[in-house]
Write a structure and sequence with these properties.
534 residues, alpha/beta, five-stranded parallel sheet, 23 helices, 11 strands, six-stranded mixed sheet, flat
């Protein structure tokens, strides 16, 4: 496998040569060029599989080079580097069948993954060409049939249960299995939402995960039949045994996946092992494993076996709610989190914590915290609206750690806002600042209360107590003062000034202005001009 690096910047080419482990990517030869003309000469003289090329260059663009490559019918996987996030560039690159489009500055770890994908694609295309020449394309079709068979078996709730029906399916599709073949399913759950590559580039993250799995799941005792993401971030692996099944070996392999995922994928992970079954019985085992995984609350970075973790049938026993209410009232967030964590881990140890119990626990704590806020006139449903709350809420049933994170968010937010709300001067100043910045908008007691997450009646009482002025009167006074400023310092028409201070009806504005100032807006402006002239 050979690569050609093309960039008019010598230092970029040098950095690419030195900072990427080409040997690990199975790249044998690295060619370099500093303009399109040099790149064409190399392509005419040498076999190049991958092109890594800048787009903007003085003597011809990378897009022009790729257009020439396509015209000459060279089979090259092109990766573009550019400083510009230009849609037209990206569109043209897609039209020319480029492999990827990468913005500078270069993230070498990420680029290495893209190069590996390009190398795999180049190798796959080469294999397809060889297979076509040798008349072996039937093998590719066989692989597709195998993939479809396992996808249907894993994701389909209806699958032949009678051995004769399964045998008939295998015979019709010429599948290389016997009913007595032994298979072990395992589920791998990854958590890519905590700052890993999977948060921003799931395709690349999935590719990296599959590479890690392919390296780990190698053994003369078994082979990997399929690796399938059956729901987001939940992967199922099917292993076929060629020797006596060894669950202990698979357990050890899964255990070794955890530090690799932590280190290389920068994410947490857990594994669920199913039981080894014959092909005739593997479908119900997979359904059981998926159901078990959905109903069981797990701890991250652990390996679990379905035969060692029966779901407890005990009724939900709530935590010490009185203690938690007292800790919340005292503002002791760390003690609150410690108590809830102790409770969750205790239930896990007794194997009585399932999704139903955890959902009830979450509801109890949310009700407690919402009640705590309501007593202080804080509108919890407004305080906790937003994408952060929604994401943490959705994730909270995935693991003990996710629930702990959600509880910490609820408590920290509640206590921080209680501190703010208990300082009336801070709340009033916040409202005054908001009014001054949004003077032209529809300002009501309800809309202002939403900005500080307080009950509207409570906010009105608080504002009058702190300022001596009713909230509605303060809004009018502020609008009139702003109108005075524009009347005195600008030639803006009165109807425009009325709109800028929140009054769509300029007649109403004029009556209100005269009521407050004793003069109409026109009379006020005239008086200001006369006073300036002396």
């Amino acid at each position: 496998m050979n690569v050609l690096l093309v960039d008019d910047d010598y230092f970029v080419v040098t950095a690419l040569e030195s900072k990427i482990d080409w040997q690990a990517l199975s790249i044998e030869q690295i060619y370099t060029a500093y303009n399109v003309s040099q790149a064409k000469e190399i392509l005419q003289q040498h076999a190049v599989d991958i092109l890594i090329c800048d787009i903007e260059m003085p003597q011809g663009s990378g897009l022009e080079l790729l257009a020439w490559i396509r015209e000459e019918r060279y089979r090259v996987q092109a990766i573009f580097l550019t400083n510009y996030a230009d849609f037209n560039y990206a569109q043209k690159a897609i039209e020319l069948q480029s492999f990827d489009y990468f913005l500078k500055p270069i993230e070498f770890d990420k680029l290495a993954l893209i190069i590996r994908k390009a190398a795999n694609k180049a190798s796959e295309e080469r294999s397809i060409e060889e297979a076509a020449r040798e008349g072996l394309l039937w093998k590719k079709n066989q692989n597709r049939l195998l993939e479809l068979f396992w996808r249907k078996l894993i994701t389909g709730k209806s699958f032949p249960s009678e051995p004769r029906a399964i045998q008939r399916v295998m015979e019709e599709q010429h599948l290389p299995y016997q009913l007595s073949d032994r298979f072990t399913p395992l589920i791998i759950k990854v958590f890519p939402h905590d700052g890993s590559l999977g948060k921003n580039d799931k395709d690349l993250f999935d590719y990296a995960l599959l590479n890690v799995l392919n390296e780990l799941l190698r053994s003369p005792l078994y082979k990997v039949e399929t690796v399938l993401e059956y729901t987001e971030n939940h992967w199922i692996v099917i292993l076929q045994w060629s020797a006596e099944p060894s669950t202990g070996q698979i357990e050890n392999t899964c255990a070794s996946l955890i530090p690799k995922a932590n280190r290389f994928l920068k994410c947490d992970v857990y594994c669920h092992l199913g039981l080894t079954e014959s092909l005739a019985a593997v479908h119900p085992m997979i359904r059981q494993l998926i159901h078990f995984n959905e109903e069981t609350i797990n701890i991250r970075n652990q390996v679990f076996r379905i035969d060692q973790r029966p779901v407890g049938e005990a009724a939900y026993i709530p935590p010490d709610l009185e203690l938690l209410e007292r800790l919340l009232s005292d503002g002791d967030a760390s003690a609150f989190s410690a108590e809830t964590s102790r409770y969750l881990h205790e239930l896990t140890g007794r194997q009585t914590l399932n999704v139903s119990a955890l959902r009830q626990f979450r509801l109890d704590l949310m009700q407690m915290i919402y009640s705590f806020l309501k007593q202080r006139e804080i509108q919890a449903h407004k305080l906790y609206s937003g994408s952060t709350n929604d994401q943490l809420f959705q994730q909270s049933l995935q693991s003990i750690e996710d629930m702990e994170q959600y509880i910490a968010y609820l408590v920290d937010t509640a206590l921080a806002y209680r501190t703010f709300a208990e300082k009336p001067n801070s709340v009033v100043e916040e409202i005054k600042l908001y009014i001054s910045k949004h003077i032209g908008e529809d300002l009501t007691r309800n809309s202002l209360a939403e900005t500080v997450y307080l009950n509207p009646d409570y906010l009105a009482r608080l504002f009058k107590k702190e300022t001596g002025v009713p909230l509605g009167n303060y809004i009018i006074e502020t609008r009139i003062q702003m109108a005075k400023h524009w009347l005195a310092t600008s030639q803006m028409p009165v109807h425009m000034i009325a709109g800028k201070v929140g009054y769509a009806n300029d007649s109403y504005f004029s009556r209100l202005f005269k009521q407050e100032c004793g003069l109409t807006p026109y009379e006020f402006r005239h008086k200001q001009q006369k006073d300036r002239l002396g």
